[in-house]
Amino acid sequence: MTNNILQTDIYALAPHHRFQWEEAQQNYVILFPEGMVKLHGGAGEVIKRLDGKVSVGDVVVNLKATFPDAANIEADIIGMFELAVSKGWLRKV
Question: Around Cβ 45, how many Cβ atoms within 10 Å?
């Protein structure tokens, strides 16, 4: 099932999920009652920008400015949103 992620959508962490830097893992993680997921690549960069107020489009613009040399970054960002929503890590505000 494909999630339709729109530039105007606003997301936040789902209830009972916590995002943090995990020193032991040297990586960002999402903690939830059933366990933990280690975020690879730029996934942590996407999630750390979510505050329940910024849109997907805002995140894309911010990350494009932060990583100007990253090829195909918009598709990667949208893909991360699709994965996180499908896994229940994020909720639409």
Answer: 19
Sign (positive or negative) of CA dihedral 14, 74, 41, 68 = negative
How far apart, in Å, are the Cα atoms of 28 and each of 8, 42, 53, 67, 93? 25, 10, 21, 18, 22
6, 28, 44, 45, 70 from 19: Cα distances, Å: 23, 7, 9, 11, 24
- Quote the CATH superfamily of domain 11-92: Coenzyme PQQ synthesis protein D (PqqD) (1.10.10.1150)
pLDDT of residue 1: 43
Q: pTM of the entire structure? A: 0.90
Write the pLDDT tens digit of every residue in 31-74.
999 999 999 989 999 999 999 999 999 999 999 999 999 888 99
